[in-house]
Every structure is written in structure tokens, then in C-alpha cells.
Amino acid sequence: MAIATTPSVQFKCGHSKAKGLSSTPPGKRKAKAFGLGRNFVCFRCFKASRRDEFDKHNQDQLIQAQGFDEEHGLPELTGSDRQVRWSTTVRYQVLTELIDAAETQPRPFDAEQIIEVAKALVRAGWWLDNTNDKDLDVDDLLTLITTAVDEDNLVATENPF
Questions:
Q1: Number of Cβ within a 10 Å radius of residue 144
Q2: Surface-to-core class of residue 30, CB atoms within 10 Å of its CB (0-12 exposed, 13-18 middle, 19+ buried)
Q3: Could you say which DSSP state residue 2 is in?
């Protein structure tokens, strides 16, 4: 009789699943299956726990962003619910990065003035479209925010047509 290459593993979450252990020597498969079950949860439970942690982290970050908005008098963003939730967090990250960099930049700038300019940028899509690039440095972010407002009118595009 051949030794099974896919023994059933009873995970610590209570679920069981057949696990392919063909790369493990036959004499060590049973011990490996036992060790996997004793030390790990199944993939479905692992994924659910990570999703819960991720959702909690995003909720905490949104609460911090909303507190920052209230503290600095930033208006509520406009757009779909998902856009507003995400762009509120993005705006918080961008503006706090600019506040932190205000003193350390070789070319100093007034962070409060940048926040005043940012108050005019109320479209959630602008924050998502223009500031989500990881390659942007502080000077790029300053340029984007200060040039997006043209005498109280938002510049939607560079295209004149």
C-alpha cells in the first residue's frame, strides 16, 4: 500500500483540509501534517483575520484624518462614499507630510498657507488622481496643491479644449 501524499491536516482553527506533502519524505509526512495543524490556521481563517486587521487599520486612519480635518477646518470632500473615505485619508497623509517637512526643507514654506490653499480642493477625485503617486516628493506635492487652484476656480485639466 502506498503512503498518502495528501494527508488531511486538522488546523488549530478547527478546519481540516487535505494538504499536498509529496515533497516531504514519506516517513516525515504524518509529523509534518501534525505540525502544520498544530501551528497554523487554515487559509480561509488567515485571510479573514488579515482582512479584519486591515479594515480596523483603515478605520483608525480615517478617524485620525477626520480629526485632522476638524482641527484645521478642512471642508468635507465631494464624490462617492468610497472616494470620500479614501481621499480623506490621502489628503491627511499628504498634508501631514507637508507639515512635517515644512521645517526641514531646504526651501522653507508656510504649511498653514498650504492648508489654506488645500481647503479649496474639495473634489475627492483630485486628491486620488494627483497625490497617490509614491514617486512624488515634497516639492512636487507643493506644486500640485498650489497650482490646482486658480483664483477660486479649480483647474480640471491642462487641456484648453
A1: 18
A2: middle
A3: P
